[in-house]
Amino acid sequence: MRSEVLKGHVDFLILATLRDGPLHGYGVVEKLRGASHGVFDLAEGTVYPALYRLEAAALLSSKWTTAGGRRRRVYQLTKRGRTELERERKEWKAFSLAVKAVVT
Amino acid sequence: MRAFLAELSRELEQVGIRGRLRRRILAESEDHLRSDPEALERFGSPAALANTFAAELGARASRRAAVGAFAALAFAGAVFAVSFLSGAFAGQPAPDTWPVLAQLALPVLIVAPQVSFVAGSLALVRVLRRREPVLPSSELTVICRRTGVALISGLVTMSVLALIAFELSADVAAWWVALTLIGTALATPLLLLAALPTSSAARLHPRVAGSAGDLFDDLGFRTDPWRFAGLLATGLGLLVFLAAARQGDPFEGALNGAAEALACLSGFAVFGRYLGLRH
Protein backbone atom coordinates (compact mmCIF):
# COMPACT_ATOMS: atom_id res chain seq x y z
CA MET A 1 0.00 0.00 0.00
CA ARG A 2 1.27 3.50 -0.81
CA SER A 3 2.93 5.07 2.22
CA GLU A 4 1.01 8.37 1.93
CA VAL A 5 -2.29 6.45 2.22
CA LEU A 6 -1.06 4.80 5.41
CA LYS A 7 0.51 7.92 6.89
CA GLY A 8 -2.67 9.35 8.38
CA HIS A 9 -3.58 6.04 10.02
CA VAL A 10 -0.27 4.99 11.60
CA ASP A 11 -1.26 5.95 15.15
CA PHE A 12 -4.65 4.25 14.89
CA LEU A 13 -3.10 1.06 13.49
CA ILE A 14 -0.45 0.94 16.23
CA LEU A 15 -3.05 1.47 18.97
CA ALA A 16 -5.20 -1.29 17.42
CA THR A 17 -2.21 -3.65 17.31
CA LEU A 18 -1.76 -3.26 21.06
CA ARG A 19 -5.45 -3.83 21.85
CA ASP A 20 -4.98 -7.48 22.84
CA GLY A 21 -1.96 -6.93 25.09
CA PRO A 22 1.57 -5.57 25.41
CA LEU A 23 4.09 -5.97 22.59
CA HIS A 24 7.64 -4.83 21.88
CA GLY A 25 8.46 -2.76 18.79
CA TYR A 26 9.40 -5.78 16.71
CA GLY A 27 6.15 -7.46 17.75
CA VAL A 28 4.11 -4.42 16.67
CA VAL A 29 5.69 -4.43 13.20
CA GLU A 30 5.21 -8.20 12.84
CA LYS A 31 1.61 -8.14 14.04
CA LEU A 32 0.70 -5.28 11.69
CA ARG A 33 2.22 -7.14 8.78
CA GLY A 34 0.66 -10.48 9.75
CA ALA A 35 -2.84 -9.21 10.56
CA SER A 36 -3.02 -7.29 7.28
CA HIS A 37 -1.55 -10.21 5.28
CA GLY A 38 1.44 -8.06 4.33
CA VAL A 39 -0.59 -5.05 3.16
CA PHE A 40 0.54 -2.83 6.05
CA ASP A 41 4.28 -3.25 5.82
CA LEU A 42 5.19 -0.24 7.95
CA ALA A 43 8.89 0.61 8.07
CA GLU A 44 10.63 0.41 11.43
CA GLY A 45 11.78 3.99 10.82
CA THR A 46 8.10 4.99 10.96
CA VAL A 47 6.89 2.71 13.75
CA TYR A 48 9.48 3.55 16.44
CA PRO A 49 9.13 7.36 16.29
CA ALA A 50 5.34 6.85 16.32
CA LEU A 51 5.58 4.63 19.42
CA TYR A 52 7.60 7.34 21.19
CA ARG A 53 5.12 10.00 20.10
CA LEU A 54 2.15 7.96 21.36
CA GLU A 55 3.92 7.36 24.65
CA ALA A 56 4.67 11.09 25.01
CA ALA A 57 0.94 11.70 24.44
CA ALA A 58 0.18 9.24 27.29
CA LEU A 59 -1.71 6.92 24.94
CA LEU A 60 0.89 4.19 25.52
CA SER A 61 3.13 3.27 28.40
CA SER A 62 6.30 1.22 28.18
CA LYS A 63 8.73 -0.65 30.40
CA TRP A 64 11.79 -2.85 30.10
CA THR A 65 11.22 -6.59 30.46
CA THR A 66 13.59 -9.52 30.21
CA ALA A 67 12.62 -12.53 28.10
CA GLY A 68 15.03 -15.32 27.15
CA GLY A 69 17.90 -13.32 28.62
CA ARG A 70 17.17 -10.31 26.39
CA ARG A 71 16.00 -6.91 27.58
CA ARG A 72 13.07 -5.61 25.60
CA ARG A 73 10.99 -2.47 25.76
CA VAL A 74 7.34 -3.49 25.89
CA TYR A 75 4.49 -1.13 25.01
CA GLN A 76 0.89 -1.27 26.20
CA LEU A 77 -2.23 0.84 25.91
CA THR A 78 -3.00 3.21 28.73
CA LYS A 79 -6.59 3.91 29.79
CA ARG A 80 -6.47 7.06 27.70
CA GLY A 81 -5.05 5.10 24.77
CA ARG A 82 -7.90 2.58 24.98
CA THR A 83 -10.47 5.41 24.98
CA GLU A 84 -8.77 7.04 21.98
CA LEU A 85 -8.70 3.68 20.16
CA GLU A 86 -12.43 3.19 20.72
CA ARG A 87 -13.14 6.71 19.46
CA GLU A 88 -11.06 6.17 16.33
CA ARG A 89 -12.61 2.74 15.75
CA LYS A 90 -16.10 4.26 15.75
CA GLU A 91 -15.03 7.02 13.39
CA TRP A 92 -13.35 4.54 11.09
CA LYS A 93 -16.37 2.23 11.06
CA ALA A 94 -18.72 5.08 10.10
CA PHE A 95 -16.27 6.29 7.44
CA SER A 96 -15.70 2.87 5.88
CA LEU A 97 -19.43 2.09 5.79
CA ALA A 98 -20.07 5.40 4.04
CA VAL A 99 -17.27 4.78 1.50
CA LYS A 100 -18.56 1.26 0.89
CA ALA A 101 -22.09 2.57 0.32
CA VAL A 102 -20.80 5.05 -2.26
CA VAL A 103 -18.34 2.91 -4.19
CA THR A 104 -20.20 -0.41 -4.34
CA MET B 1 24.44 -3.56 12.41
CA ARG B 2 27.28 -2.19 14.56
CA ALA B 3 28.06 0.50 11.97
CA PHE B 4 24.35 1.43 11.75
CA LEU B 5 24.03 1.77 15.54
CA ALA B 6 27.26 3.78 15.83
CA GLU B 7 26.06 6.17 13.12
CA LEU B 8 22.59 6.37 14.66
CA SER B 9 24.21 7.26 17.99
CA ARG B 10 26.15 10.09 16.33
CA GLU B 11 23.09 11.35 14.46
CA LEU B 12 20.94 11.32 17.60
CA GLU B 13 23.59 13.42 19.31
CA GLN B 14 23.58 15.80 16.34
CA VAL B 15 19.84 16.46 16.62
CA GLY B 16 20.06 16.94 20.39
CA ILE B 17 18.84 13.53 21.63
CA ARG B 18 21.23 12.58 24.41
CA GLY B 19 21.46 10.64 27.65
CA ARG B 20 18.84 8.10 28.65
CA LEU B 21 16.60 8.70 25.63
CA ARG B 22 19.43 8.08 23.20
CA ARG B 23 20.49 4.91 25.04
CA ARG B 24 16.90 3.67 24.95
CA ILE B 25 16.52 4.26 21.20
CA LEU B 26 19.82 2.49 20.55
CA ALA B 27 18.95 -0.46 22.81
CA GLU B 28 15.54 -0.92 21.16
CA SER B 29 17.01 -0.66 17.67
CA GLU B 30 19.70 -3.20 18.56
CA ASP B 31 17.15 -5.63 20.01
CA HIS B 32 14.98 -5.28 16.92
CA LEU B 33 17.90 -5.84 14.54
CA ARG B 34 18.98 -8.93 16.50
CA SER B 35 15.46 -10.34 16.07
CA ASP B 36 15.34 -9.45 12.37
CA PRO B 37 18.71 -8.53 10.78
CA GLU B 38 16.94 -7.86 7.47
CA ALA B 39 15.03 -4.96 9.05
CA LEU B 40 18.14 -2.78 8.69
CA GLU B 41 16.93 -1.33 5.39
CA ARG B 42 13.47 -0.58 6.75
CA PHE B 43 14.94 1.53 9.54
CA GLY B 44 16.06 4.01 6.87
CA SER B 45 19.23 6.06 7.08
CA PRO B 46 20.45 6.84 10.64
CA ALA B 47 20.31 10.57 9.82
CA ALA B 48 16.68 10.39 8.66
CA LEU B 49 15.65 8.20 11.63
CA ALA B 50 17.32 10.51 14.19
CA ASN B 51 15.70 13.49 12.52
CA THR B 52 12.24 11.87 12.64
CA PHE B 53 12.65 11.19 16.38
CA ALA B 54 13.75 14.78 17.03
CA ALA B 55 10.95 16.22 14.89
CA GLU B 56 8.24 14.09 16.54
CA LEU B 57 9.51 14.71 20.06
CA GLY B 58 10.52 18.34 19.47
CA ALA B 59 7.04 19.64 18.68
CA ARG B 60 5.50 18.00 21.75
CA ALA B 61 8.38 19.01 24.05
CA SER B 62 8.22 22.66 22.94
CA ARG B 63 4.45 22.70 23.36
CA ARG B 64 4.60 21.23 26.87
CA ALA B 65 7.40 23.60 27.86
CA ALA B 66 5.43 26.66 26.70
CA VAL B 67 2.24 25.59 28.50
CA GLY B 68 4.13 24.69 31.71
CA ALA B 69 6.02 27.98 31.61
CA PHE B 70 2.79 29.93 31.15
CA ALA B 71 1.26 28.21 34.21
CA ALA B 72 4.33 29.04 36.33
CA LEU B 73 4.34 32.60 35.00
CA ALA B 74 0.65 32.96 35.85
CA PHE B 75 1.48 32.19 39.48
CA ALA B 76 4.44 34.61 39.43
CA GLY B 77 2.15 37.21 37.81
CA ALA B 78 -0.36 36.79 40.62
CA VAL B 79 2.43 37.27 43.21
CA PHE B 80 3.54 40.43 41.39
CA ALA B 81 -0.03 41.79 41.11
CA VAL B 82 -0.89 41.12 44.78
CA SER B 83 2.37 42.68 45.97
CA PHE B 84 1.99 45.68 43.64
CA LEU B 85 -1.64 46.38 44.54
CA SER B 86 -1.25 45.80 48.27
CA GLY B 87 1.80 48.10 48.47
CA ALA B 88 -0.49 51.13 48.71
CA PHE B 89 -2.07 49.71 51.89
CA ALA B 90 1.28 48.93 53.50
CA GLY B 91 2.47 52.52 53.81
CA GLN B 92 4.88 52.23 50.89
CA PRO B 93 6.82 55.53 50.58
CA ALA B 94 7.18 57.45 47.29
CA PRO B 95 9.82 55.84 45.01
CA ASP B 96 12.06 58.93 45.06
CA THR B 97 12.61 58.36 48.82
CA TRP B 98 13.54 54.67 48.40
CA PRO B 99 17.07 53.37 49.16
CA VAL B 100 19.40 53.65 46.12
CA LEU B 101 19.37 49.92 45.33
CA ALA B 102 15.56 49.84 45.33
CA GLN B 103 15.44 52.94 43.10
CA LEU B 104 17.86 51.30 40.65
CA ALA B 105 15.76 48.11 40.65
CA LEU B 106 12.46 49.94 39.97
CA PRO B 107 12.85 50.37 36.17
CA VAL B 108 13.67 46.65 35.93
CA LEU B 109 10.53 45.87 37.93
CA ILE B 110 8.50 47.86 35.42
CA VAL B 111 10.02 46.44 32.23
CA ALA B 112 10.73 42.76 33.11
CA PRO B 113 7.13 41.69 33.90
CA GLN B 114 5.91 43.27 30.67
CA VAL B 115 8.53 41.42 28.63
CA SER B 116 7.67 38.22 30.49
CA PHE B 117 3.92 38.62 29.92
CA VAL B 118 4.27 39.43 26.21
CA ALA B 119 6.82 36.67 25.47
CA GLY B 120 4.93 34.03 27.52
CA SER B 121 1.58 34.91 25.97
CA LEU B 122 3.03 34.85 22.46
CA ALA B 123 4.62 31.45 23.11
CA LEU B 124 1.25 30.14 24.27
CA VAL B 125 -0.57 31.66 21.29
CA ARG B 126 1.95 30.05 18.94
CA VAL B 127 1.61 26.55 20.44
CA LEU B 128 -2.19 26.81 20.45
CA ARG B 129 -2.12 27.90 16.79
CA ARG B 130 0.38 25.26 15.60
CA ARG B 131 -0.92 21.90 16.80
CA GLU B 132 0.63 19.71 14.11
CA PRO B 133 2.61 16.66 15.33
CA VAL B 134 5.70 17.93 13.48
CA LEU B 135 6.68 21.61 13.23
CA PRO B 136 9.39 23.33 11.18
CA SER B 137 12.68 23.74 13.05
CA SER B 138 12.40 27.53 12.83
CA GLU B 139 8.99 27.32 14.54
CA LEU B 140 10.42 25.26 17.41
CA THR B 141 13.22 27.81 17.80
CA VAL B 142 10.73 30.68 18.07
CA ILE B 143 8.58 28.82 20.64
CA CYS B 144 11.60 27.96 22.79
CA ARG B 145 12.99 31.50 22.57
CA ARG B 146 9.68 33.06 23.57
CA THR B 147 9.32 30.62 26.45
CA GLY B 148 12.92 31.14 27.56
CA VAL B 149 12.72 34.94 27.46
CA ALA B 150 9.41 34.83 29.38
CA LEU B 151 10.90 32.62 32.10
CA ILE B 152 14.13 34.62 32.44
CA SER B 153 12.15 37.88 32.66
CA GLY B 154 9.84 36.23 35.19
CA LEU B 155 12.82 35.18 37.31
CA VAL B 156 14.31 38.67 37.07
CA THR B 157 10.95 40.12 38.15
CA MET B 158 10.75 37.85 41.20
CA SER B 159 14.37 38.59 42.20
CA VAL B 160 13.94 42.36 41.86
CA LEU B 161 10.61 42.29 43.70
CA ALA B 162 12.23 40.40 46.59
CA LEU B 163 15.14 42.85 46.58
CA ILE B 164 12.80 45.85 46.76
CA ALA B 165 10.77 44.25 49.57
CA PHE B 166 14.00 43.62 51.47
CA GLU B 167 15.30 47.15 50.88
CA LEU B 168 11.98 48.71 51.99
CA SER B 169 11.56 46.44 55.02
CA ALA B 170 12.29 49.26 57.48
CA ASP B 171 9.76 51.66 55.90
CA VAL B 172 6.69 49.52 55.13
CA ALA B 173 4.33 47.22 57.02
CA ALA B 174 5.95 43.91 57.98
CA TRP B 175 3.02 41.93 56.50
CA TRP B 176 3.73 43.35 53.01
CA VAL B 177 7.41 42.41 53.23
CA ALA B 178 6.51 38.90 54.43
CA LEU B 179 3.80 38.51 51.76
CA THR B 180 6.15 39.60 48.98
CA LEU B 181 9.11 37.53 50.15
CA ILE B 182 7.02 34.38 50.65
CA GLY B 183 5.33 34.90 47.26
CA THR B 184 8.62 35.33 45.41
CA ALA B 185 10.16 32.41 47.33
CA LEU B 186 7.30 30.18 46.11
CA ALA B 187 7.25 31.48 42.54
CA THR B 188 11.00 31.28 41.91
CA PRO B 189 11.35 27.46 42.21
CA LEU B 190 8.22 27.07 40.09
CA LEU B 191 9.81 29.17 37.34
CA LEU B 192 13.06 27.21 37.66
CA LEU B 193 11.13 23.93 37.40
CA ALA B 194 9.38 25.21 34.27
CA ALA B 195 12.79 26.06 32.81
CA LEU B 196 13.87 22.38 32.83
CA PRO B 197 11.50 21.17 30.06
CA THR B 198 12.22 24.38 28.16
CA SER B 199 15.93 23.67 28.21
CA SER B 200 15.30 20.02 27.13
CA ALA B 201 13.07 21.19 24.27
CA ALA B 202 15.61 23.77 23.16
CA ARG B 203 18.29 21.06 22.87
CA LEU B 204 16.36 19.26 20.12
CA HIS B 205 17.37 20.39 16.64
CA PRO B 206 15.41 18.52 14.00
CA ARG B 207 15.92 19.53 10.40
CA VAL B 208 12.40 20.29 9.19
CA ALA B 209 11.94 22.85 6.45
CA GLY B 210 9.42 25.67 6.70
CA SER B 211 9.14 29.23 7.93
CA ALA B 212 8.22 30.25 11.48
CA GLY B 213 5.85 33.04 10.56
CA ASP B 214 5.73 36.28 12.53
CA LEU B 215 3.59 38.12 15.07
CA PHE B 216 0.89 38.81 12.48
CA ASP B 217 0.45 35.11 11.75
CA ASP B 218 -0.30 34.76 15.48
CA LEU B 219 -2.64 37.75 15.57
CA GLY B 220 -4.51 36.82 12.40
CA PHE B 221 -4.10 40.08 10.49
CA ARG B 222 -1.29 41.71 8.55
CA THR B 223 0.11 45.23 8.57
CA ASP B 224 3.48 46.96 8.51
CA PRO B 225 5.33 45.71 11.66
CA TRP B 226 6.85 49.08 12.56
CA ARG B 227 3.55 50.89 12.04
CA PHE B 228 1.91 48.36 14.37
CA ALA B 229 4.69 48.76 16.96
CA GLY B 230 4.36 52.55 16.73
CA LEU B 231 0.60 52.44 17.27
CA LEU B 232 0.93 50.02 20.18
CA ALA B 233 3.66 52.12 21.82
CA THR B 234 1.57 55.29 21.41
CA GLY B 235 -1.49 53.57 22.88
CA LEU B 236 0.45 52.26 25.89
CA GLY B 237 2.11 55.65 26.44
CA LEU B 238 -1.29 57.36 26.34
CA LEU B 239 -2.72 54.89 28.86
CA VAL B 240 0.12 55.57 31.30
CA PHE B 241 -0.29 59.35 30.78
CA LEU B 242 -4.06 59.22 31.34
CA ALA B 243 -3.70 57.10 34.49
CA ALA B 244 -1.23 59.61 35.98
CA ALA B 245 -3.28 62.62 34.82
CA ARG B 246 -6.32 61.19 36.57
CA GLN B 247 -4.30 61.10 39.79
CA GLY B 248 -3.46 64.79 39.28
CA ASP B 249 0.11 64.46 37.99
CA PRO B 250 0.02 65.00 34.18
CA PHE B 251 3.70 66.08 33.95
CA GLU B 252 4.92 62.87 35.61
CA GLY B 253 2.37 60.99 33.48
CA ALA B 254 3.77 62.48 30.27
CA LEU B 255 7.32 61.48 31.25
CA ASN B 256 6.29 57.94 32.23
CA GLY B 257 4.08 57.60 29.14
CA ALA B 258 6.95 58.61 26.87
CA ALA B 259 9.27 56.17 28.69
CA GLU B 260 6.70 53.37 28.30
CA ALA B 261 6.29 54.07 24.57
CA LEU B 262 10.06 54.18 24.11
CA ALA B 263 10.50 50.91 26.04
CA CYS B 264 7.83 49.27 23.86
CA LEU B 265 9.55 50.39 20.64
CA SER B 266 12.97 49.39 22.00
CA GLY B 267 11.61 45.95 22.92
CA PHE B 268 10.28 45.52 19.39
CA ALA B 269 13.64 46.57 17.95
CA VAL B 270 15.73 44.37 20.27
CA PHE B 271 13.54 41.24 20.46
CA GLY B 272 11.64 41.63 17.14
CA ARG B 273 13.58 39.13 15.06
CA TYR B 274 14.76 36.95 17.96
CA LEU B 275 11.20 36.25 19.15
CA GLY B 276 9.74 35.98 15.66
CA LEU B 277 7.70 39.19 15.95
CA ARG B 278 8.87 40.37 12.52
CA HIS B 279 10.84 38.85 9.64
Characterise this structure.
The complex is a heterodimer of chains A (104) and B (279). In chain A, helix 3 crosses helix 4. Chain A starts with a helix and ends with a helix. Chain A contains five helices and three strands; from the N terminus they run ααβααββα. The longest helix of chain A has 25 residues, at 79-103. Chain A is globular. Chain A has one domain: Winged helix-like DNA-binding domain superfamily/Winged helix DNA-binding domain (Arc Repressor Mutant, subunit A, Orthogonal Bundle). With 104 residues, chain A is of the alpha+beta class. Chain B is mainly α. Chain B folds into three domains: 2-44, no CATH class; 62-211, Butyryl-CoA Dehydrogenase, subunit A, domain 3 (Up-down Bundle); 213-279, no CATH class. Helix content of chain B is 76%, strand content 0%. Chain B contains nine helices and no strands. Chain B is elongated. The interface between A and B is medium-sized, with 19 and 24 residues.
Text of the CATH class of the largest domain in chain B: Mainly Alpha
Instruction: Give the C-alpha Rg of chain B.
Output: 24 Å
Cα distance, first to last residue of chain A? 21 Å
Structural class of chain B: mainly alpha
**How many strand units of chain A?**
3
Q: Please give the largest β-sheet of chain A.
A: 3 strands, antiparallel
* Low-confidence blocks of residues of chain B: none
Overall tally of domains of chain B: 3
CATH classification class of chain A: Mainly Alpha
CATH architecture classification name of chain A: Orthogonal Bundle
Residue share in helix of chain B: over 70%
Shape of chain B: elongated
Specify the overall morphology of chain A: globular
Indicate the CATH architecture of the largest domain in chain B: Up-down Bundle
**What percent of residues of chain A adopt helix (DSSP H or I)?**
55-70%
What CATH calls the topology of the largest domain in chain B is Butyryl-CoA Dehydrogenase, subunit A, domain 3
CATH superfamily of chain A: Winged helix-like DNA-binding domain superfamily/Winged helix DNA-binding domain
Distance between the termini of chain B: 45 Å
